[in-house]
Amino acid sequence: MAKFLTGNRLNTEIEDILEKAYLQLILISPYIKLHERYISVLKSKINLPELELTVVFGKNEDDLSKSLKAEDLKFFTEFPNIEIRYEKRLHAKYYANENAALITSMNLYSFSQDNNIEAGILTKSSLLGNLTGGLLTPFTGGDSFEAEAFEYFGRVVQQADLLYKKIPVFESSLMGLKKRYKGSTVVTDKINEFFNKNNKTPDKKEYNRPNSITNSNKPVQTTNGYCIRTGREIPFNTKKPFSDEAYNSWLKFKNEEYPEKYCHFSGEPSNGETSFAKPILKKNWQKARDIHRL
């Protein structure tokens, strides 16, 4: 039976869908910035290789980071059995596990959860399927509305661009009666390529200005640097190679090896070869060392 939900009941049911997912979890939302409550629940699922997680986001072709925050993207890639997809036309929101599904107006976005007037329709039935495999197997209690919604969002998943896919590897034991998880294999990873291709490149004067200028062949030292996440000009400081906003974002996880987008010294795109631990591209290190006396 379908239920109409608003307010706290809507938030609670989304959390319940996350909590009770053991075989399959589908998160379809144009904008994703996970609330701390949802992160806490999902962390309890991160070591379940049998759980197939599918994430679809969309919108913001010119700046995809507005649709899926970098810290949430990194968090999702830590799951052992996951697909991440992008659909530029996406506006619908759909959250489901193997036993329940929610069609709603609310993005999987912390601001929406805390501030907006939202509503949704929850269905609970014995529907078990595999969206990514194109299967739908209703077996007791499901009605046409639930089946049609499940099948429709299955097509949405299939038509979205696949950016990342990681699959678990199992080893059979006891003559095939048991299986042991050995680890996961990344079979598709287009994340850096996709984000670099689709995000607007900052104005060249923001990221490609030289760190020294020449007048009559005499170098004049400057102290500017560039945020390794946004490419914006900031004071040169290898201990804090971020703008204030980017630094506050980085502090949430404090991953010193997380791949960033720009070189702190030159501002040029680094294609993931820079990080908090190594904010300067290797080819620029000697020049940065000479100019800034590192």
Structural commentary:
The chain folds into two domains: 3-196, Endonuclease, Chain A; 201-292, no CATH class. A hairpin with a 4-residue loop joins β12 and β13. It has helices spanning 7-19, 36-43, 70-76, 110-115, 144-159, 191-198, 204-207, 244-250, 285-292, and strands spanning 3-6, 24-28, 32-33, 52-58, 82-87, 93-97, 100-104, 108-109, 119-124, 127-130, 135-138, 161-173, 178-189, 212-215, 218-221, 224-226, 233-235, 260-262, 269-274. The strands form six sheets. The protein has a nine-stranded mixed sheet with strand order 1-9-7-6-2-4-5-12-13, sandwiched between helices. A two-stranded parallel sheet has the order 3-8. It has a two-stranded antiparallel ribbon with strand order 10-11. The protein is an alpha+beta fold and 294 residues long.
List the helices and strands and how they pair.
Elements: E1 3-6, H1 7-19, E2 24-28, E3 32-33, H2 36-43, E4 52-58, H3 70-76, E5 82-87, E6 93-97, E7 100-104, E8 108-109, H4 110-115, E9 119-124, E10 127-130, E11 135-138, H5 144-159, E12 161-173, E13 178-189, H6 191-198, H7 204-207, E14 212-215, E15 218-221, E16 224-226, E17 233-235, H8 244-250, E18 260-262, E19 269-274, H9 285-292
